[in-house]
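pinned: reference chain
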Amino acid sequence: MRFRLALPAAAVAVLFAGPALARLVVAFSPPAQRAVAAQVVVVGTVTSIDKAPVEVSPGRGAPGKVPYKLAVVKVDEALAGATGLTHLKVGFVSVGAPAPQPGRPILPRRGGVELKEGDQYVLFLTRHHEGNFYVMPFSSPPLDPKSENGKTELAEVKRSLAVVAEPTKALTAAKAEDRAFAATMLVAKYRAYPEGGGEPKEEPVAADESRLILKGLAEGDWKLGNRFNSPSPFTAFNQLGLTPQDGWVQPQVRPQPGQPVDFAAVTKEAFVKWLAGPGKDYRVKRLVAGK
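pinned: its structure tokens
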């Protein structure tokens, strides 16, 4: 079975080719989506780096082994999945990357992010499928919690994790914009491709929660926002992966010269109609790791 990943929702690779240059550009998940897709989220400080790397498979079913350096991270604040933990080990592939510049985003290079002893990070982690440590998915690089951008993004992370902690409360909030945010974050969590490889399976979420999620999306503002990868109800709609088997008919748009079309608005109108008709009994499906 194949699953569609919406462009704004996942890390996207785009090849730009010119007369003398072709380069790969990767869009990273927004911090809120990194948080809800991660198994563990912490604010932590690297206290040491193990001298001896460990060699393990880089992915489930991948051939060969790769040496991982292991960073010992002191948990300064457990945000998700780390209750009771004081320290954890985070593996990364050393690429000799220069140290991050203060105030600038932490971006992975070939092989990933190079953690530095003494630095503090907001980490989005998944347990390595084979080794006894955690790893940072390439599309979810860490944040610098001390930078101005990092402080704002950390607040966004905490807001998204509050949704996951109490989904019903978030989906029934007083303001439509808050309900739409909750619905968007829950779709991002449920439709995140499981880390570690393997073919995922789909499982329906509870009917009551599914109805609230779809209603929240229908109430939201489907504008994409001011960032290419900004989460929005339109992003979440694309992640649902609706098909004709679900009664969904993709609206046909034929722009005329000088008359731009708001495709998100057209799609929202079609979604609202679908939800009142063929989609009234539709269940949002979560992706779970296959065996």
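why pinned: Residues 148-165 form the longest helix (18 residues). Helices lie at 31-37, 148-165, 167-171, 176-190, 207-219, 233-240, 263-276.
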